[in-house]
Design a protein that fits this description.
Elements (H helix, E strand, L loop, with lengths): L8 E5 L4 H10 L5 E6 L2 H11 L6 E5 L5 H14 L5 E4 L17 H26 L5 E6 L25 H21 L5 E7 L13 H9 L7 H13 L10 E3 L2 E2 L9 H16 L1
Parallel strand pairs: 1-2, 1-4, 2-3, 4-5, 5-6, 6-7
Antiparallel strand pairs: 7-8
Helix pairs in contact: 1-7, 3-4, 4-5, 5-8
The structure holds NADP nicotinamide-adenine-dinucleotide phosphate (NAP).
Length: 287
């Protein structure tokens, strides 16, 4: 049973597939305003139309989250249309088996999986703080990370893996998911004293569109993996819980799995690396 969200505004990225789509389907009937971010106008509108049967206050925004300019436009559109933000869910992400660069010349995994979370959150932070500052209210940032961080480290001397792009993109993916945790902890630290929390989570190994953007071999491998995977609605459970549970109103800086706080790794606990990543990300989104 999802907590009622009447009067609240939720912004969810990666809403048109997989875990995000299931989270949107679970959140819509809970009331409040749900703003869904997709990258394809027709699919976003179709989902909004479907969910309006459960909640007339569902809206869609469209952006390519691998582009700095698109994220700025998205944030501007959100801020112009919605006067509060109770929950931001950073969910859109992907694995890329071959190295690519975005329109901004940034390695695509780092750009989409980390920089987009960082950029969108920082652009919306004042609105989150203002929402949380109202007596009796609080706001939260929920970022979808992954247990793939457990084998990862930050390759500070080659963060964008220009020299080599090992393990079919899994090194870049694991690093980006480690970055989600470092970002969350540094954000939580910076939000100390406000009524805005920042948490992240692992949704489990989920049967979704994940990795299927990488051609036939990847699609076959993901199909073979199905017996090991959980359904996308099960994968969305911890996302929805982290976004809505009243028990978490003041919980911050945590990594969740199966609706429980879990330990992470030593690299994910580094305060120095969290600060270093924050400062680097600030420079990269301005470049
Ligand atoms: N599946 C797993 O086993 C697993 C495990 C741990 C963590 N995760 C994390 O869970 C999150 C959701 O992944 P998923 O499993 O639900 O995969 P998915 O089904 O592929 O969904 C990814 C979502 O991100 C969106 N997206 C991708 N590139 C984008 C871009 N450039 N701009 C805007 N949106 C973009 C996709 O849009 P479209 O709908 O247009 O494709 C889709 O809605 C990711 O952060 C992933 O790292 C997944």
């Amino acid at each position: 049973m999802v907590t009622r969200m009447d009067g609240k505004v939720i912004l969810l990225t990666g809403a048109t597939s997989g875990i995000g789509r299931q989270a949107a389907q679970a959140l819509a009937p809970a009331g409040g305003r749900l703003v869904l971010v997709g990258r394809d106008r027709a699919r976003t509108d179709a989902l909004v139309g479907e969910l309006r049967a459960h909640n007339p206050d569902v809206h869609g925004l469209v952006a390519d989250l691998s582009s700095h300019a698109e994220i700025r436009r998205l944030a501007g559109e959100f801020l112009a249309r919605h006067d509060r933000l109770d929950v931001l869910i950073n969910n859109a992400g992907a694995l890329f088996t071959t190295r690519e660069e975005t329109v901004d010349g940034v390695e695509r995994t780092f750009a989409l999986n980390h920089l987009a979370y960082f950029h969108l959150t920082t652009l919306l932070l004042d609105r989150l703080k203002a929402t949380g500052a109202v007596p009796g209210q609080s706001a939260r940032v929920v970022s979808v990370s992954s247990d793939a961080h457990r084998r990862a480290k930050m390759g500070w001397d080659d963060l964008e893996l220009k020299r080599s792009y090992p393990a079919q993109g899994w090194a870049a993916y694991g690093q980006s998911k480690l970055a989600n945790i470092l970002f969350t902890r540094e954000l939580a630290r910076r939000l100390d004293g406000t009524r805005v929390t920042a948490n992240c989570l692992h949704p489990g190994f989920v049967d979704s569109g994940f990795a299927r953007n990488n051609g036939l071999v990847a699609r076959v491998l993901m199909t073979l993996a199905r017996p090991l995977q959980r359904t996308a609605d099960k994968g969305a459970e911890t996302v929805v819980w982290a976004a809505t549970s009243p028990d978490l109103a003041t919980t911050t800086g945590q990594y969740f799995k199966d609706c429980e706080a879990r330990k992470t790794t030593k690299p994910a606990e580094s305060v120095t690396d969290g600060l270093r990543l924050w400062e680097l990300s600030e420079r990269m989104i301005r470049a």
